[in-house]
Amino acid sequence: MDHVARIQAEWRRERPDVDVSPQGVIGRLHRLAPLLTERLCLVYRRHGLGEGEFDVLCALRRAGEPFERAPGELAEHTMVTTGAMTKRIDRLERGGLVTRRRSTADGRGRVVALTGAGREVVDAAFTDHMRNERSLLDLLTAEEAAQLESLLAAWLTRLEPPADA
Questions:
Q1: Do residues 9 and 1 lie in contact, with contact meaning Cβ atoms separated by under 8 Å?
Q2: Least crowded by CB within 10 Å, which of 17, 18, 61, 106?
Q3: Contact 11, 2 (CB under 8 A)
Q4: Could you give phi then psi for residue 94, rounded to 5 degrees?
């Protein structure tokens, strides 16, 4: 019996009138999330990054040449507030991984761009990150991983508002 199964058994004993079966999924996801986050953050730290900084660098790298986005766009791509984004950009700029400049399209706006050093860091970190994710996923069989991905995608589609909403 794992931790969640023990909790369910206790609740079944104490509250047999309540269906505790949802805990089997939700409870295990809740326990998995911090375990996965910790393992992912180990890789980011090896590259001198926090999870948020890694997200920003990845959003810039995914943008393609010239590897830049407006701060508001970065906030949307990383699902954080613009205030939190400003702090992340400040740290990355101090580290020489990004630069900020005025937008040529809108003089009031700003653009954040990867520096050469930022691109090197994110490329190395991303390679290690994917290797790390592979090692975590390899704890499942290929079939289990495919089933899990399909189920999670279906569930997320039903819970999360559409990206264009």
A1: yes
A2: 17
A3: no
A4: -60, -35
pTM of the model: 0.86
Handedness of CA 139, 144, 145, 149 (dihedral sign): negative
Do 132 and 40 meet the contact criterion of CB atoms below 8 Å apart?
A: yes
Nearest Cα to Cα of residue 88 among 77, 74, 101: 74
Residue 92: name the closest of 50, 53, 51, 61 by CA.
53
Which ranges of 15-137 does DSSP label H, i.e. alpha helix?
22-46, 51-62, 71-78, 82-94, 116-137
3-state secondary structure at position 89 = helix
pLDDT in tens, 135-162: 999 999 999 999 999 999 999 999 987 7
Distance (Å, whole) CA 98 – CA 100: 7
Element (H, E) at 102: strand 98-102
- Does residue 114 register a pLDDT over 70? yes
- Please give the C-alpha separations between residue 92 and each of 54, 85, 112, 157, 158, in angstroms, as whole numbers: 10, 11, 10, 32, 35
| Model pLDDT for residues 62-77, shown as the tens digit of each residue | 999 999 999 888 888 8
Task: Give the strand order in the sheet containing 98-102.
Answer: 68-69, 110-114, 98-102
